[in-house]
Specification:
Elements lengths: L5 H19 L14 E8 L3 H4 L2 E8 L2 H8 L3 H14 L6 E8 L8 E4 L6 E7 L7 E4 L5 E5 L4 E5 L3
Parallel strand pairs: 1-7
Antiparallel strand pairs: 1-4, 2-3, 2-5, 5-6, 7-8
């Protein structure tokens, strides 16, 4: 049997490590394909009377497939929060979507939320669980930073640079 040179052995080990790393990413490679670790930055202005002075659940759904985007994009916030558990069972995390869940007490300071930007992210859906009637949902370009203001009866969104 022919003995390999140390350089060839190192190259083979590095190639094996690279393959194992890619396989460990779940096959979807969503994080591997992120552009230099860029984060979508969402600032939240949490007013004293947000949601009629009740905690506000705020979900960010980053969708990767057209089917998932169409399905989730039709849901109002109320429907989303009622059907979220079933949605998680019906869809594959890191392949169909990523979900970031938060809840804020009115008036409390909120640090900037950073969501990993991935080149395969189709859209970022934002759902706010308000007591008042309304859709309380917005679609955001996952390449844009934004500011969300949690108001008494709903929220507003301002995209940075627009």
């Amino acid at each position: 049997m022919k003995q390999q040179s140390p350089a060839a052995f190192r190259a083979a080990v590095l190639a094996l490590c690279a393959c194992l790393l890619l396989a460990a990413c779940g096959g979807g490679l969503r994080y591997v394909r992120s552009l230099g670790g860029r984060q979508v930055r969402i600032s939240v202005v949490n007013t004293e009377r947000a949601n009629l002075n009740n905690p506000v659940a705020l979900d960010f759904l980053l969708v990767f497939t057209e089917k998932t985007e169409t399905e989730a994009g039709k849901l109002t916030a109320r429907q989303w929060f009622e059907k979220k558990s079933q949605f998680k069972r019906d869809h594959i995390v890191n392949e169909d979507y990523l979900l970031f869940e938060y809840e804020f007490v009115p008036g409390d300071p909120v640090p900037v939320i950073e969501i990993p930007y991935t080149v395969s992210g189709r859209s970022l859906l934002v759902y706010a669980d308000y007591y008042t009637p309304g859709e309380h949902r917005v679609r955001l370009n996952p390449q844009k930073d934004a500011t969300i203001t949690l108001n008494e009866r709903g929220f507003t969104l301002a995209v940075t640079g627009e």
